Amino acid sequence: MQIAPPILSVTPNRALVDEKFKVLVENLPPGCPVTVRSLHRSEDEDDWEAYGHYVSDHRGIVSVSEDLSFGGTYTGKEPMALLWSMRPVPGSRPGLRLRKKNVCTPMLVDISVHSGHEGFRDQAPLASAVTERWYMAPGIQRIDINEQGVRGTLFIPPGPGPFSGLLEMWGGGGGLLEYRSSLLASHGYVSLALDYTRHEHPSANLEFKYFETAFNIIKDHPQVIPDRVGILGSSLGSVVAFALTAYSTVSKPRCIVCISSNHYYPPGRTLKVGTDENTYMSWRSSALDLITDSSNNVDVGKINCPMLLVNGCDDQNWPAVETAEEVARLMRAAGKEHLLSRLLYPDTGHLIEPPFSPHFRATTFVINKQKVILLWGGQTKPHSDAQEDSWRKILSFLQLHLRCGPSPKEKL
Amino acid sequence: MDSKQSCVKLSVQPSRGLIDEKFIVLVQNALPGSQLTIHALHQCEDGHSWEAFGHYTADTTGTVNVSEDPSMGGTYSGVEQMGLLWSLRSVPGSKPGLRMRKKNVQAPMEVTISVYKGHQTQGFADMVPLSGVMVERWYMAPGVRRIPITEDGLTATLFLPSGPGPFPGLLDLWGGGGQLVEYRAALLASHGIASMAIDYLTANITRKTGKMVDNQYFETAYRVLQQHPQVCSSRIAMMGLSFGTSITLKMAIYSKVIKLSCAVCISGSHVQPVDGSVEEILKYFHKNAEKTRLNEKNEVIWRDLLLPIPTDPLLKADVGQLQCPLLLVVGEDDQNWPAPESALDETMERAGNSHLLTVLSYPNAGHLIEPPYTPHARSSTFRTVELSQKVMCLWGGQTAEHSQAQEDAWRKMLVFLRENLYGTRTPTTFSQL
User: Fold this and answer.
1) Statement: residue B67 has pLDDT above 80
2) Is residue B67 annotated as part of the catalytic site, yes or no?
3) Which of B4, B130, B162 shows the shortest C-beta gap to A128?
4) Residue B85, domain extent
5) Using an 8 Å Cβ cutoff, are B162 and B188 in contact?
6) Do B7 and A405 count as a contact with CB atoms less than 8 A apart?
7) Gene3D superfamilies under this entry (chain B) (predicted)?
């Protein structure tokens, strides 16, 4: 009689990307060394993997949520590391970054269990299961926006509404990315992912009116509560958030969230780029010079709504710590420090993404039509912890300021 | 505050789950002490609308948790975490005698869950809810593969679990209505068992030739399953409901080819002419057709056709000869088959193999013991393969207890299968069921 195979289960097997799962392996021999591995083929057809080395207990069980990993792409008790510690498989193209373009389909991750620790890849897996990670909850409407010159994608939650709204922006490069807006809609907000980086160079002239129009599109939407619209921007997107909030006489966001924030308002100057020991490019040092010249700063003292700044101490792309300090100083000077909340995460880099997203310390980036490797910073474990914590705090901040009623204790 | 806007937040976790998984329905930010109705709406593949609802009162924090709070009325009452699904019933004005059965198992069942102000009982379509979400209920876990089987004259569908295998296998048989019913096999594959749903009454070969299949058909299905490269040839089970039980017992006891690790028989009987073909067994049931009864609603009761349980051993499958564990699941209010009486008659004690038998007998459960949270149909329009027209068939069961029976039976069936097919006694993954 054949030996009964081990059973691997992922619970839940369909979830939103910011939800946790439990990976369990049963029916192993007791005290058996195994490797639990995740494998994902990206839309660009690159393979990403993560793995941990485990030993089954006397019942023949390995529980990734409860047991320690002895090595691999992560160590310790890490329920979600099979996602956040993912990296391109050996032999892949350098400088890759994982970002979902089509949010209507789930990210498919194959979780498998293999015999042994060293050389686990040499044999076929003992068992495996596919899990789906969704960027969109069921019932969300996705609408292409191309009106009044504004381009983007609008996500509307199911239900009668009306809902609070969000104008959501990423930074330079990458084009229009919808996944954070679809995720915010999954948390009950009407969210517009705005396409505005038509030029690759981050110091291109940004048209003010474009953003005011985009903000109005959300505000005037029949399913949006007009005085409960906020802005969430990362990197260059945070410059827009600051500028719009400080200077617009038309757009009055109820609150703003700035991730890897920057209040330096580039008036068309070219940035000098420095290189680090790996010849990865970094704007950090040259940008420091720029921000000491206050004529380049957005006058954040003019902002009248609550602000949340989320930054990484090891941001190698932009002097995030220094700029956050500068914002705090300006707000203090304007007597508005009470509006400001800051989250500063140690060993965390520039690319603060939704939870469980793999960490990218450096990736390829196109500048002036040239491909370079750009250094973002961060150490994987603390950076991933920061992603998980900051997302929860961002949602909590939005809940407090954009939604009515007392803020309940929301569990992520 | 704008009176038009609602602060009420409704969430269902998980928003995408398997059909047999529980969910948590939570209302937050409601007015403390306010009356609320939580409502479920589903439009099935045939276009009929189904609804369920419960009446609740928000607590002092403005919260309602369906897993913890009692419903004070509606289509279910009491603390019923899954009441919004199992108490679904066709909306007023629908055709009578409907039964919800999923045909396309590759797409999820979509349910809209909403919360309304007050304790409402009708007219939901004309009211604006405070909040609403959409929930998906899947029959197939990610990675499960659906493979139509037409070789060797079979009309069947094989569902393979996610992963390399090899997996234990299972042959899945439904009852006298025929057709190829896939949803239970799809769900079993989602639990790690390579399951083959078999059409044995309206198979393509029967449609073409007019002839009923014989014993060889099932042995062929067994062989095809066994020989599949991703199936453990020595770990095959069989599961049958209603007439499917008759076939399962026949094969488990008498077939020289089929060697089962275990068998599950739901709402059936061992009464059958021993050595009879499928056709002969059906003819035997028909001999007593005049014992058909009608209740006050003109609903057809067929349980008497096999009563009294015969004493002639040639008219009963000899369960004393069974060599593998058998799980019998019966509803004590089964109005279609005398399943409880048959369970009592199982003479395994004398043969010394009663340790192989487990009987799950549920008070006030009817004939159609389906996977958990399937809406209960006490009666529905039905046509067996021999009848030329549909009748309103009484299945039996009281909704709340029948639904409890479905949930309990499924959990125990999975444990039974796991134990006998995988050889493990501690299935921790079913703790959420």
Assistant:
1) yes
2) no
3) B162
4) 9-138
5) no
6) yes
7) Acyl-CoA thioester hydrolase/BAAT N-terminal domain, alpha/beta hydrolase
- What is the Cα–Cα distance from A378 to A349, expressed in whole angstroms? 4
Kindly state whether residues A101 and A149 are assigned to the same domain.
no
CATH code, domain carrying A126:
2.60.40.2240
User: Sheet of B9-13: strands edge to edge?
Assistant: B9-13, B24-28, B64-65
What is the bridge-based pairing of β-strands B16-18 and B35-43? unpaired
The answer to whether residue A407 sits within a structural domain is no
CA distance B403 to chain A (A): 24
Q: Is B4 on the interface with A (CB under 8 A)?
A: yes
Q: Is A128 found in the same domain as A62?
A: yes
- Are A118 and A147 in the same domain? no
Look at residue A274 in the predicted model and tell me its pLDDT: 45
More confident: A145 or B1: A145
Q: Are residues A68 and A175 in the same domain?
A: no
Q: Does the residue B428 lie in any domain?
A: no
Residue B208 lies inside a defined structural domain of this protein: yes
* Same domain, yes or no: B104 and B157: no
Question: Quick one: A129 and A174 in the same domain?
Answer: no
Chain-chain contact of A408 with B61 (C-beta, under 8 angstroms): yes
Separation CA B35–CA B32 (nearest Å): 9
Q: Are residues A186 and A42 in the same domain?
A: no
Residue of A15, A24, A106 lying closest to B429 (CB–CB):
A24
Task: Please indicate, yes or no, whether residues B131 and B153 belong to a single structural domain of this protein.
Answer: no
Range of the domain at A100: 7-133
DSSP string, A242-303: HHHHHH-SS---S-EEEES---B---SPPPP-EE-TT--EE-HHHHHHHHTSGGGB--GGG-
* Cβ–Cβ < 8 Å for A315, A351: no
B367 given a catalytic annotation: yes
- Give per-residue pLDDT as tens, A327-356: 999 999 999 999 999 999 999 999 999 999
Say if residues B193 and B237 touch (Cβ distance below 8 Å).
Answer: yes
Q: Which of B76, B103, B138 delimits the end of a domain? A: B138
DSSP state of B157: E
Helices marked H in B35-92 — which ranges? 83-86
Question: Dihedral through CA A97, CA A101, CA A103, CA A105, nearest 10?
Answer: -90
Fill in the amino acid letter for A77: K
Residues 6+ apart with CB under 8 A from B33: B57, B58, B59, B60
Q: What percent of chain B has pLDDT over 70?
A: 95
Helix (DSSP H) and strand (DSSP E) numbers for chain A: 7, 21
| pLDDT, tens digit, 9 for 90 and up, residues A267-318 | 443 333 444 555 455 555 555 555 556 666 788 999 999 999 999 999 998 8
Q: Looking at residues B116-139, what average pLDDT do you find?
A: 97
B432 lies in some domain: no
Residue B169's domain is classified under what CATH number? 3.40.50.1820
Mutating which of A7, A25, A130 best tests the B interface, going by the most B Cβ atoms within 10 A?
Answer: A7
CA triplet B197, B199, B205: central angle to 5 degrees? 140
B334 in catalytic set: yes
Helix ranges, B30-136 (H): 83-86
- pLDDT above 60: residue B235: yes
Residue A165, CA atoms < 13 Å, CB-side half-sphere: 24
Question: In this complex, is the C-beta atom of A1 within 8 Å of any C-beta atom belonging to chain B?
Answer: yes
- Asked if A139 is an interface residue toward chain B (Cβ–Cβ < 8 A), one would say yes
Among left, alpha and beta (phi > 0; psi -120 to 50; other), residue A239 is alpha
Is the residue at B4 inside a domain?
A: no
In angstroms, the CA B260 to CA B173 distance is 15
| Chain mean pLDDT for chain A | 88
Whether B427 contacts B433, CB under 8 Å? no
Question: Which of these is catalytic: A350, A359, A383, A401?
Answer: A350
Say whether pTM exceeds 0.80: yes
